[in-house]
Amino acid sequence: MSVTAPVLSPVEGIKTRSRRLRGTLLESLANEVTGAIADDDTQLIKFHGSYMQDDRDLREERRAAKLEPDYSFMIRTRLPGGVVTPEQWLKLDAIAQRYANGTLRLTTRQAFQFHGVIKRELKSTLQAINAALIDTIAACGDVNRNVMVAANPLVSDLHAQVYADAANLSEFLKPKTRAYYEIWLDEEKVAGSGEEYEPIYGAVYLPRKFKVAFAVPPLNDVDVFANDLGFIAVIENGQLLGYNVVVGGGLGATHGEPATYPRLADVLGFVAADRVNAIAEAVITTQRDFGGRADRKHARLKYTIDDRGLDWFKSEVERRFGAPLRPARPFRFEHNGDRFGWVEGRNGRAHLTLRIEAGRVADRGEQRHLSALRKIAQLHANEDSGLEFRLTPNQNLLIANVPSEDRAEIDEIVAEHHLDLYRTATPLRLNALACVALPTCALAMAEAERYLPDFTTKVEALLDKHGLRDARIHLRLSGCPNGCSRPYLGEIALIGKAPGRYNLMLGADVRGQRLNRLHRENVDEAQILATLDELLARYAAERADAQAFGDFLVRAGVLAEAHYKVIPVTLLEPSAAAA
Length: 579
Prior knowledge:
Helix 9 (276-290) crosses helix 11. The protein is of the alpha+beta class. Strand 14 (363-364) and strand 15 (367-368) form a beta hairpin. The strands form five sheets. Strands 1-2-5-4-13 form a five-stranded antiparallel beta sheet. The N and C termini lie far apart (52 Å). The protein is globular and about 70 Å long. Helix content is 31%, strand content 18%.
């Protein structure tokens, strides 16, 4: 009996015909009749680090005026660990002012995003980013995306080792096609252009996006279990022994389609630090060869593992790796947030973590955050002070390696420009995340970034009512179920269903090791606040000492059974491992 091959998704055809991601991008950029690019090119430009968008606030107005949508482009950087020098910060700031909408956005994957770049300035913007020694290659698309690294180091030397491993892996996994350099940087075509050998990705790249993160316990600021591939640093006596490898995380889902769901990664085993690239290649090529290519909603690594089984997947990875993985080592996480304010480092250096609400660095009213950071960068540009800026995975900013003699001046600038929210804000506000959502994201069903400040204020009023103002509760807002703000790991999360309506998700833990669950479906603000009012009253009256809100909801039996598949992660405690 013959077996009919599955029909591939249209995007697979676009990649196949693209001549290694070139498509007709040059022709699209040259077309002055429209602010858009060709349909196929909207898929290919993602591999180059950009998405075509339009201002949804203006859609109806422009349609009535018989104008095309107000098209523009979002550009995202590939920046392992989110680390930049003061000189680079100033160049990115200038790019935002010259080509984008005058703001920098810090993403939950430690990258910068520029919004509002029009097509005729797209090439100039990308060239300016590359002139800052930063690129956007593979920041989007069906490839490995920006590699995340723990941003809040407890041990500077150890963090430097982990960062080096992550940066090396990011370079190792970068596509080999020269399309990016030909199209955007005017590199001359050479023999074989359009037919480059892609040893890791192959001719059609991966079935879907792929995400990698490096965590350094006891902090899980990268939410390592939410990634396709994660590396948990194993530390003994201050030394990096290697990494526990976790696979199969991913938070994207689709409303009304139970075959799609968020999933936490499984622990696969342990590898030495010098084997990071080899195990990553084994995992990625397994996904390349066995991942689903018929339905893009069912194409992430998490589905490959669930469809074929973890034992099968591990066996296949070990075959490609060339050796069995060693048993995972004990590890323990305490929380998945950031540590705000000053933290002492080594050799007279310190690190300052600043709160950037929803990751939007802008000058708005008294809050002149862009100006403050520009001033700090100018003071340390062209110096050998070692100061650097680090984007955190929680949309905040860390000014790292600050010499002791410079702390007072930085504090003065921060206060003068009202960038010192971390001193007065509630833990709820400090730890809240939100995706961009409306007006630019094409997938958004409801507000997120623009709604976050107002909604947070209303929840704070409930906390005050119940004497819980200092409760460290993780809040996350998402305009759709695709999970860019990692909403399924929020103790409280809103996931957009329609304008002004959300699914209310509750019950994740504060270590990033338990997914939340659907508690109320398709509800408006009044219903959400009434529900939270009741639950916070119970929490205040019934919680155990130091019990987190998510843990209380689970142990008090508040939450119904999950409406989607949940893969629990077992915390490996040293005592349990010894037994």
